Automatic annotation (TrEMBL):
<protein>
    <recommendedName>
        <fullName>Glucosyl-3-phosphoglycerate synthase</fullName>
        <ecNumber>2.4.1.266</ecNumber>
    </recommendedName>
</protein>
<feature type="domain" description="Glycosyltransferase 2-like">
    <location>
        <begin position="6"/>
        <end position="121"/>
    </location>
</feature>
<keyword id="KW-0460">Magnesium</keyword>
<keyword id="KW-0328">Glycosyltransferase</keyword>
<dbReference type="InterPro" id="IPR001173">
    <property type="entry name" value="Glyco_trans_2-like"/>
</dbReference>
<keyword id="KW-0808">Transferase</keyword>
<dbReference type="InterPro" id="IPR029044">
    <property type="entry name" value="Nucleotide-diphossugar_trans"/>
</dbReference>
<comment type="similarity">
    <text>Belongs to the glycosyltransferase 2 family.</text>
</comment>
<dbReference type="Pfam" id="PF00535">
    <property type="entry name" value="Glycos_transf_2"/>
</dbReference>
<dbReference type="GO" id="GO:0016757">
    <property type="term" value="F:glycosyltransferase activity"/>
</dbReference>
<dbReference type="InterPro" id="IPR050256">
    <property type="entry name" value="Glycosyltransferase_2"/>
</dbReference>
Length: 243
């Protein structure tokens, strides 16, 4: 049986990018090296205030609309709930002409060499933040799971659907990738990271950029705290059972 790939794209106020992303993704999917592979594209509009929904609908197989903004993790979970594929590929909505390059992430899964593949993106063209969020995420993932990652914040990742569902529901908000990496490593999923020449919208050293990274820092911190509490609870339960 040919593999079935579900591409899940959470989107919020992306009317300026989503059509370009989907068009280039479809063009590349049509040229895929694996004849007969079944592919579906699912976009989850997470309560957008613009015309993201209208821009996306001609290019997708399934289009889900949240009535209000629920967060990236919740949007990804809505996509998973509707996905029929045995392989899942999560992509950001602002990849535009580079979106199709992310399809390389499914190759290690097709070869049964990995359960999850994460994209390592090229360095940004301009220096934006000070690396605080990425550093926090890398250290937190290492301490809580033992996994050493180079791409702790990457939203571009492929995963086997059966292994993902073993992990339970995805964490809400922008800490979803950090929590997912911790959960996957703890459960013994085979994880690989690949250099993929994907680009997306960059934030600068302006008020908007600092606000974005501040929210991201808070979301990552909460994700790490939740996974630390889970580990502490497991230790407590283990100690109690040995009494």
């Amino acid at each position: 049986m040919k593999p079935y790939l579900s591409i899940i794209i959470p989107a919020w106020n992306e009317e300026g990018s989503i059509e370009h992303t989907l068009r280039h993704l479809q063009d590349q999917a049509d040229l895929m090296y694996n004849p007969g592979m079944r592919i579906e594209i699912i976009v989850v509009d997470d309560g957008s205030c613009d015309k993201t929904y209208e821009a996306a609908w001609p290019w997708v197989d399934k289009l889900i609309k949240h009535k209000r903004r629920c967060g990236k993790g919740a949007a990804m979970q809505s996509g998973v709930a509707e996905a029929r594929g045995d392989l899942l590929l999560f992509l950001d909505a602002d990849l535009r002409a580079t979106a199709g390059r992310a399809l390389v992430l499914i190759e290690p899964l097709l070869r049964h060499e990995a359960d999850m593949a994460i994209a390592k993106l090229p360095p940004p063209h301009t220096k934006a933040g000070f690396g605080l969020v990425k550093g926090l995420a890398r250290r937190g993932i290492r301490r809580l799971s033992g996994y050493e990652t180079e791409a702790p914040l990457s939203g571009q990742r492929a995963v086997r659907a059966d292994r993902l569902r073993e992990l339970g529901e995805l964490r809400r908000g922008f800490g979803v990738e950090v929590a997912l990496t911790i959960d996957a490593a703890r459960r013994g999923l085979r994880i690989v990271e690949l250099d993929v020449p994907i680009t997306h919208r960059e934030t600068g050293r302006d008020w908007h950029g600092f606000m974005h990274r501040g929210k991201q820092f808070a979301a990552v911190s909460l994700a790490l705290l939740s996974r630390w509490k889970e580990r502490k609870q497991l230790w407590y339960s283990s100690d109690r059972s040995s009494i």
